[in-house]
UniProtKB/TrEMBL annotation:
Cofactor(s) recorded in Swiss-Prot or TrEMBL: Mg(2+)
Keywords for the protein's UniProt record, in alphabetical order: Hydrolase, Magnesium, Metal-binding
GO MF annotation terms: hydrolase activity; metal ion binding
Listed name of the protein: NTP pyrophosphohydrolase
SUPFAM superfamilies tied to this protein: Nudix
Domain Nudix hydrolase: 18-151
Organism expressing this protein natively: Agrobacterium vitis
InterPro entries listed in its UniProt record: DDP-like_NUDIX, NUDIX_hydrolase-like_dom_sf, NUDIX_hydrolase_dom
């Protein structure tokens, strides 16, 4: 039995492809009362809670791809960080039923504007929630950690300012 497990493991390694790359925007805002909120949207296929993300766009820089996806999928615009907050992995379901591994680099986007008309309007549910609520809704463990990281850094900044 151990030999069979070893063969299966070796075959998996042989056929494993590197993950496909995607870029995402973790959109946030501060409420009038000073609370931090993040934007979650539903995926169009499964209805899972996610953040705006997409595939590379030619030679466009990754943070600008994330910014563009936030506009197209959620109708938000703002200031995007040029460096990634971190990344997470997930298995992307393709139309043919195949699942492919994806690494998603996440960039913070401070939302400053909402537009009424955007490409994917009406195809997703959008909701502003706390980092804790967002972490409880998304499925990917590494994305949950990014929400907690954002919340902690915000708390540290508030403590240092006070």
């Amino acid at each position: 039995m151990a030999i069979l497990k070893r063969i299966v493991s070796d075959l998996e390694l042989m056929f494993r492809r590197p993950p496909k790359q995607q870029f995402a925007a973790l959109c946030y805002r501060e409420t009038k009362t000073g609370l931090l909120e993040v934007l979650l949207i539903t995926s169009r296929d499964t209805g899972r809670w996610v953040i705006p993300k997409g595939w590379p766009m030619g030679s466009k820089k990754s943070h600008l791809v994330a910014q563009r996806e936030a506009y197209e999928e959620a109708g938000v615009k703002g200031k995007i960080a040029k460096t990634s907050l971190g990344s997470y992995f997930y298995m992307k379901g393709m139309p043919d039923g195949l699942k492919i591994p994806c690494e998603v680099k996440v960039y913070l986007l401070e939302v400053r504007e909402f537009v009424d008309d955007y490409p994917e309007k009406g195809t997703r549910i959008l909701e502003w929630v706390s980092c804790d609520v967002a972490a409880s809704r998304v499925q990917e463990p590494q994305l949950k950690r990014l929400f907690h990281l954002l919340s902690l850094s915000r708390q540290r900044n508030a403590a240092n300012a006070g």
